[in-house]
């Protein structure tokens, strides 16, 4: 009996010790697994930093193309718009009212100066002309007879003078009627082309009625304006080039006159040029794109247009200096379709970067792949 308690106590202590040993082993195993997972994760986190540190933290040079500036020649031009006008143009109207009895032109005809185009009824004037011619003839014969009688004393000087005066009055009245008859005829004031007519035979016209338009279009005039900045640089005798939308070629004209003052509202000076138009393809009223050459600039600094970057305060280009990109603020001059003149900010022999412009920044390392 005395041995039972002793045996029972020994068994309980042994079981407790075995339970704690099992739990400890499980915690140790779990800790080992955690360490392994953390160990695997650490290289992924620290790897890039180590790589950056081993590489020194610098950026790889950006590959770019560039060009070395050389002196060039550019032609300074002013581009503006203009309108074609007839060399001479007039609306045909009657000097006095009346009914049209004859129209002697067809629409679109070329007519010479002085050609009779329209006849207005002048029957009454013709009758008056005949009456005056008859009276003048009788008065002239009477004056001749009285002149013979005056030498023989058969007529007084007073009677003879009255007859001569009557002859002169009749001649004046006849000239007046002839002038009125001429007003009933509408003639071409210059050689040109007649446009569309607005009236028909039998229509009554007044001096305010437009019958048709007569225009001379060879040569043709070109009206255009330039800024007052160039007012003293465009002079009569200077050539201009222009294009119209319906003709696929460039035409030339010569400035022959300018306005006497600058327009106060637009600050522009209006000029007028003439251009040959033998085939009549240029028509009054056409819109023209005008180019006025102002002269050539030698030893100009020229860069490609795409190398210029617009900024809030102007224009900028990037140049290569000591292996890095450096910005330069520039002032621009003459532009063409693919190049632009730089008047300030660059010097000859500077190396201007011409590719990857949008990705450049101050001090960015670069490597020039192609140099022109």
Describe this structure in words.
- Helix 2 runs antiparallel to helix 3.
- The strands form three sheets. A six-stranded antiparallel β-barrel has the order 2-9-12-11-10-13.
- It is α+β, with helices and mostly antiparallel strands and 372 residues long.
- The protein contains three helices and 19 strands.
- A hairpin with a 2-residue loop joins strand 15 and strand 16.
Key attributes of the depicted protein:
alpha+beta, 3 helices, 4-stranded antiparallel sheet, 6-stranded antiparallel beta barrel, 19 strands, 30% helix, disordered N terminus, 372 residues
Helix percentage range: 25-40%
- The Cα radius of gyration reads 51 Å
* Tertiary shape: rod-shaped
Looking at how many chains there are and whether they match, the oligomeric state comes to single chain
User: Which segments are poorly predicted (pLDDT under 50) over 5 or more consecutive residues?
Assistant: 1-22, 32-57
Brief rundown of the structure:
The strands form three sheets. This protein has a six-stranded antiparallel beta barrel. Strands 6-5-3-8 form a four-stranded antiparallel β-sheet. The N and C termini lie far apart (114 Å). With 372 residues, it is of the alpha+beta class.
Compile the SSE list and pairings:
Layout: H1 3-55, E1 62-68, E2 71-92, E3 98-103, E4 110-111, E5 116-120, H2 123-152, H3 157-183, E6 185-187, E7 192-194, E8 204-205, E9 212-227, E10 239-244, E11 251-258, E12 268-275, E13 287-304, E14 309-311, E15 314-321, E16 324-335, E17 339-344, E18 351-353, E19 366-371
Parallel strand pairs: 1-19
Antiparallel strand pairs: 1-18, 2-9, 2-13, 3-5, 3-8, 4-7, 5-6, 7-9, 9-12, 10-11, 10-13, 11-12, 13-17, 14-15, 15-16, 16-17
């Amino acid at each position: 009996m005395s041995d039972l308690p002793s045996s029972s106590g020994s068994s309980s202590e042994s079981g407790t010790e075995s339970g704690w040993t099992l739990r400890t082993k499980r915690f140790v195993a779990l800790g080992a697994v955690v360490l392994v997972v953390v160990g695997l994760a650490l290289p992924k986190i620290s790897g890039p930093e180590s790589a950056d540190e081993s590489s020194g933290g610098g950026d790889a040079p950006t590959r770019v193309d560039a060009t070395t500036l050389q002196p060039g020649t550019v032609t300074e031009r002013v581009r503006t718009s203009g309108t074609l006008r007839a060399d001479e143009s007039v609306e045909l109207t009657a000097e006095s009212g009346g009914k049209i009895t004859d129209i002697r032109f067809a629409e679109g005809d070329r007519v010479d100066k002085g050609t009779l185009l329209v006849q207005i009824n002048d029957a009454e004037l013709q009758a008056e002309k005949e009456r005056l011619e008859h009276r003048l003839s009788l008065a002239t014969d009477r004056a001749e007879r009285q002149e013979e009688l005056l030498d023989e004393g058969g007529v007084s000087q007073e009677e003879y003078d009255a007859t001569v005066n009557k002859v002169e009055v009749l001649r004046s009245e006849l000239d007046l009627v002839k002038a009125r008859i001429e007003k009933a005829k509408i003639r071409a004031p210059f050689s040109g082309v007649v446009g569309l007519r607005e009236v028909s035979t039998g229509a009554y016209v007044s001096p305010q009625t437009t019958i048709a338009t007569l225009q001379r279009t060879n040569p043709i005039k070109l009206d255009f304006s330039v800024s007052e900045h160039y007012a003293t640089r465009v002079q009569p005798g200077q050539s201009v080039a222009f294009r119209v939308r319906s003709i696929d070629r460039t035409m030339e004209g010569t400035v022959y006159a300018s306005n006497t003052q600058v327009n106060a509202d637009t600050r522009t000076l209006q000029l007028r040029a003439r251009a040959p138009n033998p085939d009549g393809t240029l028509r009054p009223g056409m819109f023209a794109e005008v180019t006025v050459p102002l002269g050539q600039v030698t030893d100009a600094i020229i860069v490609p247009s795409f190398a210029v970057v617009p900024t809030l305060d102007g224009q900028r280009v990037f140049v290569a200096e000591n292996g890095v990109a450096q910005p330069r603020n520039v002032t621009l001059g003459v532009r063409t379709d693919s190049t632009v003149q730089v008047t300030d900010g660059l010097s000859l022999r500077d190396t201007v970067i011409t590719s990857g412009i949008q990705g450049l920044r101050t001090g960015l390392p670069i490597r020039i792949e192609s140099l022109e």
